[in-house]
Specification:
351 residues; alpha/beta; TIM Barrel; 9-stranded parallel β-sheet; two-stranded antiparallel ribbon; 13 helices
Length: 351
Amino acid sequence: MLQTTKPLQIGPIELDFPVVQAALSGYSDTAMRLVARRLGAPYTICEVMLDKFILQIRDRRKNHHFMHVADDEHPVGGQLMGADPEQFGPAAIRLVEHGFDVIDINFGCPVKKVLGRCRGGFHLGQPTVALEIVSRVRNAVPTHIPVTVKMRRGIDDSDESRDNFYEIFDGAYELGVAAITVHGRTVQQRYDGPSRWEFLRQLKQHAGDRTVLGSGDLFDAQACLDMIEFTGVDGVTVARGAIGNPWIFQQARALAAGHPLPAPPTLFQQRDVIAEHYSLAEELYGAERCVSTMRKFGIKYSQLHPQHKDVRTDFTQVRKPGAWREVLEKWYRVDAPGITPAIDEPKPILH
């Protein structure tokens, strides 16, 4: 069944499809972003970086992966997180200098360590500081660079939290942000419990023609299109659902075009993408340093293999450069149908 989608506009940047890859801490480096782009993601966002880290890091070979942007991955966003408003502007400028096309401000991270250092979702409880951060970033970067914000629906479900949310949400647009992504959970929920899609629907009605993206409980291609249809948001950002399953973007495009849901990638298709991902990571980090990074990706990719538990075990045991090739040779040598991973997550709340 054809599910109508429209291009997604982020400031002057027009994306041909409204399903994009979110910033994923510890995951969405250049290698992951390039694989996602080649499998249908029109836009990706780099893993979140601390403003103070960006300002202190030196441009050396061992550090280049942090702010690396490949020639063929534009447009790409760089996400900022921090506590001190004064550091956001200079850090945003440095990201632009390294080639990022969009600056995304993180007001959504719910991790306790982050909150304890007054970063991420902590700012949803202090609208004045949050809006000062937005203002400093918008004023610092060139006008053609869109500034966007990532939020959750509040610290919690109290009236005060809701008021703070809308003060930041409306105020950020007034200060010139091009789009805001909203996760349907509160900071307090972290990743527990369902996402409230009904809140996103009400929010989009409130926002009118302002660009809003939705996030939360997007673990397969159909869910991406269902969120757009149910809530009316302009686009969605796929986070955990894209780790080890970059085919989600290709599948969403097929569904939106009226085609049946494509079958899960075959073992040969999986092998080729995993090999490409590892090669990109080796180029980015070096053969030695990419081992630990790619081990966690191998674990995620294994979920699409019919013998996923055994494949996962072998990926967890990769300890030396190139050993991942032995896993591919053992488990992906003969082609066979892949499987659709089970989704062990709560269903979103639609009312």
